[in-house]
Amino acid sequence: MSTTGIPPAGDDSSKPLKEQMELLKFLRDEAEANRHRLHDEAEADRNLLKHILWVVSVPLSIALVAAGWFGISSITSLKQAIQQQAQDEGKQAIAQAKEQLHTELVDNVNDQFQTPKIKETIHDAAVEATKNEAKPLIVAGVKAQVGEAVAQQSGTIERIAKQAVNDKVQAAVTPLIDQAKKTVDDLQIQKIIASANADDAHAFDQLLPLAKGSSPNAMVIRFISERHRYAKEHIYGGQFTRCLGQLQPADFKSKLNSTDAAARQFAIADCSALNNNELPDPGISKQNAVTVEEEVVPLLVNTARNDSSLIVRAQAIQGLNEFFAGSTGFPDSGLDLLELSGLNDWWNRNSSDYKALEWISRMRFRIDRPNNPVLDSVNLYDQLTKVKASSSAVQESLRNTILQLQYRAAEPTQASLESLQTRIDRGTCDSVKADLSFHIMTWEDPKEPRWQELADQHSVYEIAFLKSCPVDTKFVNVIADYGTRSISLGKRYSAVVVINTWR
Predict the structure, then answer these.
(1) How far is the C-alpha of 463 from the C-alpha of 492, rounded, in Å?
(2) Of 163 and 280, the one with more pLDDT
(3) Are the CB atoms for 490 and 456 separated by under 8 Å?
(4) Cα–Cα distance between 192 and 99 in angstroms, integer?
(5) Which tens digit of pLDDT belongs to each residue from 312-355?
(6) What is the DSSP string of 348-384?
(7) CA–CA dist 480, 475 (Å, integer)
(8) Is the distance from CB of 268 to CB of 315 less than 8 angstroms?
(9) Which of 380, 387, 405 is nearest to 280 (CA)?
(10) Which of 171, 198, 269, 441 is 20 to 30 A distant from 416 in Cα terms?
(11) Are 126 and 25 within 8 A, CB to CB?
(12) pTM reported for the whole predicted model
């Protein structure tokens, strides 16, 4: 591109500029011609004056002679007369000369402009002069005008220039920045994945938002899915006897503070197994399953929320799933083992009612198995009637559970005599009383485990059979004493029915 600011000759945009250049050259030539014409006119005037003086000198000499001859007495008068005559003649001669010169000049100029050849010559001269002389003039003029415009618009030009540069830089740099940012993000994600893969629970939580939203990260989604699979495969099944008989709540807290993640996981697994096994009667010992569970639950919630190990978190949430399965408002599929959102939401809603919910879960889990002897526990029934809940829905679930236990306990007394005889395989009242007396003696023997009374579900039908027998004032005292001491809800209820019948 030309650095002079004049477009190339072959550019169509330069045609108006060429025409201006030709006009400038023409005006310059005309001005020069006028100057020469004025000079020539002045020279002609001088020559004419000389000619006039020479012409006048002859008559002047004659006039002087004549004046002397004719007796002109005053030189001054003569001088004035001569001057007046000379002026008159000179003016007339100059006027004639100017008129003639003007006529010749006009005719010459018209003739020149009417001649095609002269026009072509002027055009060629104008083009040539434009190249050599008009260029500096135009450049100087353009520079002056541009300089003035630039001065006036300097702020706007600077702003536009900066904006244009910024736009170009931004357009060029933005893809690079985006690519670099994506690369950095990918590296950071891979670093977090590596930490989560090494059992870092906090790193796993950082990945969760990346798997959701409008643009989920496919790599993160695959990793989270794999971690769920791994957690399910590495949940341990513990031994509830270690939690119930050997592990006191204080010891459990100590184990949860161990620096060994495996030790923490095993301790949780043992206590989580409480709800999945046939337990001794609550109330036989001071340390029973219900008491332990009530103390363990808040510890499991806290461990799931704060433990640094992802697999320990999964084990703790699995324990909560076992403790509260089937309870009011608990997810049918259980809480997610790795993501805390479900646990936090459930605990925030039910932390004040978790004991009642635990009882509901325990009862529903066993009511689904009618032969479960734990459902026949008097202590279990008594504790259920004492449980309170702030939620009306939870309280309603508790009432329904209690009604189910009452119905189960009353069922033997509703059976027909024939059905009872078939069940106990006895036909006389005396034989039934003999068998029942032996069973009571065995159940109350301190050397025998008391829970056998719950396991013996045959004897409840023996007691229910007695309501069809004649009143036995001696045996009624045996039945009354046993009913007050029994740990079996069904046997106690049947004893009460017999006593009420024999009154």
Answers:
(1) 9
(2) 163
(3) no
(4) 108
(5) 999 999 999 988 988 888 999 999 999 999 999 999 999 999 98
(6) HHHGGGHHHHHHHHHHHHHHTSTT-GGGGBHHHHHHH
(7) 9
(8) yes
(9) 380
(10) 441
(11) yes
(12) 0.56
